[in-house]
C-alpha cells in the first residue's frame, strides 16, 4: 500500500503551477522545462493518487473537483515550505523584528545603537503596526507583543511588566492647582486605548471612580498622547518606556504621589532562527527591559 509520503513534492509543485497558469505550455515556460515534462509530472501525480486532476478538452484544461481541492491545500502548504526555506537561507546578520509602532519608536529604535555597538554587522528589519498582540509572521525572527492585565494567556516568553502612571507637563500641573486625587478632575485625561480600559484600571487601583476623571482628546497611539501631554493638553497614561525621555528632560512629570500600576505585560515571540545573532538580540532585549525595570517601570 502506498503512503502519502511517497508522493513526489516536485509533482505537486508542478501541478500547482499548471493550476495557476491554466496551461501546460505556460507552466512549462515558468518552470523552465518542456511541456512534455510538465505533462509527465501531472500524469505521475494522477497515477499516484488514482484520481484525475484536470478535465482535458483539446488544448484546454480545467481542474476537476479533486484538482480544486488539492490545489487549495497544496498551494498553502508549498508556500509554508518556501517561507521556511527562505527564512533559513537569509543572511545570518539580518534580524526581522515585528513590534508595535509605539514600542519601536519610543524604546527599541532609540536604544538600537547600543546593540549595534556590540554587533556592528547586524541589520535589523522592522515591521510595525498599531496592533499590540499579533501572530508572528513566517519570515519574522522576533516579535514583541503586549497583553492586557488579566489576559496573559497565550504563547511567548515573558519579557517585562507594563507599569503605567499619569504624566503631565509641569506647567499644566501647576496651573491646575492639583494637590491630590480629590483634584484629579482638574487635569484632562487624554485617551489612547479602546474604551479607556487603562484609565478605568488605574482608577480602580486608586480606589476612585472613573467618573471622577475628565476625559479629553483621543489618540490612536500612546506616543501621540504623550506628545499631547507635552503640549499641555492633558495628562497621558504612560509607562516610562514611552515617556521616559520626556520625563528625563523635564517636559513631563509623573502625577505626584502616584505609584505605577501594572496595566499589562510584554512577551517575546520567537521564529525558527533562535541562535547566533538572533539569540544575542533576544538577550539584549531582556537586558534593556531590565534597565527600565521592565518597559514602563
UniProtKB/TrEMBL annotation:
InterPro entries: LysR-type_TF_proteobact-type, LysR_HTH_N, LysR_subst-bd, WH-like_DNA-bd_sf, WH_DNA-bd_sf. Keywords: DNA-binding, Transcription, Transcription regulation. The keyword Transmembrane does not apply. The keyword Ribonucleoprotein does not apply. Residues 7-64 form the HTH lysR-type domain. GO terms for molecular function: DNA binding; DNA-binding transcription factor activity. Belongs to the LysR transcriptional regulatory family. This is LysR family transcriptional regulator. It comes from Pacificispira spongiicola.
Amino acid at each position: 500500500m502506498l503512503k502519502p509520503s511517497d508522493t513526489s513534492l516536485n509533482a505537486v509543485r508542478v501541478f500547482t503551477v499548471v493550476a495557476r497558469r491554466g496551461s501546460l505550455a505556460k507552466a512549462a515556460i515558468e518552470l523552465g522545462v518542456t511541456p512534455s515534462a510538465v505533462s509527465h509530472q501531472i500524469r505521475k501525480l494522477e497515477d499516484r493518487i488514482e484520481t484525475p486532476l484536470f478535465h482535458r478538452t483539446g488544448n484546454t484544461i480545467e481542474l476537476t473537483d479533486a484538482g480544486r481541492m488539492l490545489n487549495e491545500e497544496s498551494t498553502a502548504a508549498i508556500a509554508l515550505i518556501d517561507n521556511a526555506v527562505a527564512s533559513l537561507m537569509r543572511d545570518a546578520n539580518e534580524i526581522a523584528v515585528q513590534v508595535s509602532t509605539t514600542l519601536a519608536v519610543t524604546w527599541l529604535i532609540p536604544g538600537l545603537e547600543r546593540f549595534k555597538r556590540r554587533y556592528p554587522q547586524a541589520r535589523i528589519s522592522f515591521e510595525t503596526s498599531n496592533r499590540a498582540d499579533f501572530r508572528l509572521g513566517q519570515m519574522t525572527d522576533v516579535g514583541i507583543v503586549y497583553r492586557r492585565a488579566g489576559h496573559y494567556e497565550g504563547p511567548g516568553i515573558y519579557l517585562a511588566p507594563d507599569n503605567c502612571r499619569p504624566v503631565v507637563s509641569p506647567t499644566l500641573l501647576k496651573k491646575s492647582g492639583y494637590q491630590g486625587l480629590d483634584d484629579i478632575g482638574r487635569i484632562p485625561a487624554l485617551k489612547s486605548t479602546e474604551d479607556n480600559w487603562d484609565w478605568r484600571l488605574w482608577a480602580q487601583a486608586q480606589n476612585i471612580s472613573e467618573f471622577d476623571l475628565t476625559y479629553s482628546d483621543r489618540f490612536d497611539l500612546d506616543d501621540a498622547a504623550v506628545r499631547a501631554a507635552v503640549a499641555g493638553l492633558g495628562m497621558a497614561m504612560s509607562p516610562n518606556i514611552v515617556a521616559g525621555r520626556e520625563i528625563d528632560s523635564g517636559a513631563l512629570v509623573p502625577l505626584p504621589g502616584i505609584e505605577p500600576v501594572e496595566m499589562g505585560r510584554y512577551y517575546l515571540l520567537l521564529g525558527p532562527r533562535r541562535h547566533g545573532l538572533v539569540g544575542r538580540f533576544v538577550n539584549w532585549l531582556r537586558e534593556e527591559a531590565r534597565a527600565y525595570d521592565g518597559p514602563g517601570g
